[in-house]
Amino acid sequence: MIDLPVIQPETAAPARPRKPDWLRVKLPVGQEYAAVRRLVDEHKLHTICESGNCPNMGECWGAGTATFMILGNICTRSCSFCAVATGRPTEYDLDEPRRVAEAIALMKVKHAVITSVNRDELKDRGASVWRETVVLTKQLSPGTTIETLIPDVKANWDALDVMISGGQEVISHNIETVGSLYRLVRPQARYDRSLEQIRRTKQAGHRTKSGIMLGLGEKPDELYQAMDDLVANGLDILTLGQYLQPTKRHLDVAEFITPDQFAHYREEGLRRGLKYVESGPLVRSSYHAERHVNVPV
């Protein structure tokens, strides 16, 4: 008898989880969306709606609102979840605050969200542009409320003081994920440093907000610990949303969290002392942001 070689079957790559129906979104259409699109293009503005591939862009722009990204569209960080380009920024436009403020006035925005890339190469992290953007927006649109979603200042607390001094109603800084995943998700950031940034913002008397992406491999107990850490550091408002892989070069989705689980996490966050929790598969930092200005400080 001749022994035939045993042919081992090829090991199949693990199947990626299939995107569920509840994550399907409509393409942006309509006159209101087109009007915002035109203003953004005409004024050469950067929006995180586009750079971050936000699934709510159609809904938000259709309502005549947008989240503006200042200080260019190239980030000095290389977070493994983010679609914003990484590199050496070349743009530093001191006239940008005026252009953003004028666009917000033209669009008659009732509530504006302003964010930015990380500018670690700038001594003040871009703080002067941050403050001037808020101040000019308030001058041109005194009835407009503002949320600023500010980046990690790398413990430059003088820069933070300038960033949060413009008169905005909500100051947000996203911790993005649980502590155990920081090296994977935010390799140039630190969990404890982001918590301290939130604590210092609260101590200065401001309404504080943060956001976490789910589906990166975090465990429920780790999320609960993050909620407790945020409450202990003075957080008022938390957003929870599903991580979606922007390109194949970015982190894979480990799990799609169900709407029922998001609802459970919302209740758990409120039970643990958060004043407001926005929780759902398509929730992003600026989703329903106009509601957050009424949260008690």
TrEMBL record:
Cellular localisation: Cytoplasm
Annotated positions binding [4Fe-4S] cluster 2: 75, 79, 82
Catalyzed reaction equations: [[Fe-S] cluster scaffold protein carrying a second [4Fe-4S](2+) cluster] + N(6)-octanoyl-L-lysyl-[protein] + 2 oxidized [2Fe-2S]-[ferredoxin] + 2 S-adenosyl-L-methionine + 4 H(+) = [[Fe-S] cluster scaffold protein] + N(6)-[(R)-dihydrolipoyl]-L-lysyl-[protein] + 4 Fe(3+) + 2 hydrogen sulfide + 2 5'-deoxyadenosine + 2 L-methionine + 2 reduced [2Fe-2S]-[ferredoxin]
Ranges that cross the membrane: none
Domain of life of the source: Bacteria
Top-tier EC class: transferase
PROSITE patterns: RADICAL_SAM
Listed EC numbers: 2.8.1.8
NCBIfam families noted in UniProt: lipA, PRK05481.1, PRK12928.1
Family membership: Belongs to the radical SAM superfamily. Lipoyl synthase family.
Protein's recorded name: Lipoyl synthase
